[in-house]
Amino acid sequence: MASSGVLSGDLSVGDRVVPGTVLAATAGARAGRGTFVRTLSQEAGASGTEQLRVTGSICASCIGVIHLTDPEPQDADQRKIVSVLPAKTSPSPVTGSTVLARVTRVSPRQASMLILSVDGQALPLSHVRVGTGAYRGLLHPQNVRQTERDRVRIVETVRPGDLVRARILGPGDTRFYTLSTSSPELGVVVARSASVRPGSGICAASGFDDITDSDRELMVPVSWTECVGVVSGHRELRKCARPF
Amino acid sequence: MADKRRICAPIDTVPPVGNPRQPCTAASGRLGGRDAMAVRPIFLETDVNPQATGSSLLEMNGTKVICSVYGPRQSHRRQPFRDTGVIDVEVLTSPFAGTHRLAPGKNAQDGELAALVEQALLPSLRLDTFPKLSVDIYIVILENGGSVLPAAINCATAALASAGIPMNDLAIACNTVSIAASAPASGADQSQQSLWIDPCLEEEASPDLAGSMLVTYMPTLNETSLMISTGSAPPTQVTEAFHTCLAGCLSLHKTIVECLTRDA
């Protein structure tokens, strides 16, 4: 029971708990991930600028293992942080998270994308197939870059088939999140050329009717405004992400 | 004229076995001599459906329910923008779930069960943690051996917990039936009624049934999310039935917590 001065009852760090289990009181600890505070009473802070002081119990909100972490030394609030970490986490997009998305449609006013991974975690198949609950986002011209935001032409920044790293600005509406690429590390990661891959055997004689994304040439960023084809060297305009 | 082309059945035939399930009466007592306050042992296993975000299989002797949870994900229904999440519950009773075959597909009772399960589960979920997304819950009743609504609710709670959906508490359901011990004598219109917790199918079909009570309870929050009471009884009996259900919920909660924390 080493650190259980903070944890209530006979719980200790490393115990598996279920939702609703009371972990600690707010007097001695702060709520971290996987927990919530059940408010017993609230009172205003001493001065007008102080936040509401909430007294209550910290309860688990998912099945997981209890963790107790120390706060940062420079933190004003020196209570330990109680969190419950589940074995598996299914990522869901929230404002501020970084996503990888594939561009599906581009129009002069917006580019619509299908979100494939959130914060580095790939979404399971049930969350990616359109029609069964896929996350989709919209990129508007004013959110593409930081400078000259009103003079952006979307067709020179992203194209259908590109893989884009973006940040979620907001929940948007029911169907689409609002995305932004206005940061040096955001933008096109890998692009698909407007021209076909050399050596793919597709030419004017064979017809251009059913070209898929994989027939088009892969392009990589060379500067923040240009991508170059890996085989042909053909250049196209994109708003590119700074490669890591 | 005797038919010589085939071997004929004997003239006297009887059906192989009549329906051996006779409804329980006050006189016959509970099926199998079960104690009035005894809840059936449960078998609960989670992560039975690898495709779903969370899933669970719950068996209480003759009642078997399986539940799959997908989400939080974008809702497939056209809905106005909400800053809290929604849940979408679908219940399906299998054609082989009862003694008589049901037509495949959803029937009217499934819709009613789904609405009740949704009502029971909503207060236990932290919907503001997944705005504009929806959690889809699919419940399939594999076998109906009585107390199917509490089994569906408990199964869905376990599946939601195994899916990692943020919850306030586990919503546990339990029901009782009230059996009138004897025909009411004149002047004593409410004779001794006995309460049987977690009834099976034969007990729910009893001709002496005077009423029933179902309670969905969240132990840590000490709140009830669903209460269904049928029949007529004096207030003392209704209160007694309610407290009996609560006691059943608490004992089920202990067992379900054990199952959920044991599954690694």
From TrEMBL, chain A:
Coiled coil location: none
PANTHER family linked to this entry: 3'-5' EXORIBONUCLEASE CSL4-RELATED, EXOSOME COMPLEX COMPONENT CSL4
Keyword terms: Cytoplasm, Exosome
Domain Exosome complex component CSL4 C-terminal residue range list: 93-128, 135-169
Top-level taxon of the source organism: Eukaryota
Record has Transport as a keyword: no
Taxonomic classification: Eukaryota, Rotosphaerida, Fonticulaceae, Fonticula
GO terms classed as biological process: RNA processing
Descriptive protein name: Exosome complex component CSL4 C-terminal domain-containing protein
Automatic annotation (TrEMBL), chain B:
Key word ATP-binding present: no
Record keywords: Cytoplasm, Exosome, Nucleus, RNA-binding, rRNA processing
Domain spans labelled Exoribonuclease phosphorolytic: 39-166
Top-level taxonomic group: Eukaryota
GO biological process: nuclear mRNA surveillance; poly(A)-dependent snoRNA 3'-end processing; rRNA catabolic process; rRNA processing; U4 snRNA 3'-end processing
Entry GO CC: cytoplasmic exosome (RNase complex); nuclear exosome (RNase complex); nucleolus
Keyword Cytoplasm found: yes
GO MF annotation list: RNA binding
InterPro entries hit by this protein: ExoRNase_PH_dom1 (IPR001247), ExoRNase_PH_dom2_sf (IPR036345), PNPase/RNase_PH_dom_sf (IPR027408), Ribosomal_Su5_D2-typ_SF (IPR020568), RNase_PH (IPR050080)
Signal peptide region: none
Subcellular location(s) of the protein: Cytoplasm; Nucleus
Family: Belongs to the RNase PH family.
Protein name as it appears in the record: Exoribonuclease phosphorolytic domain-containing protein
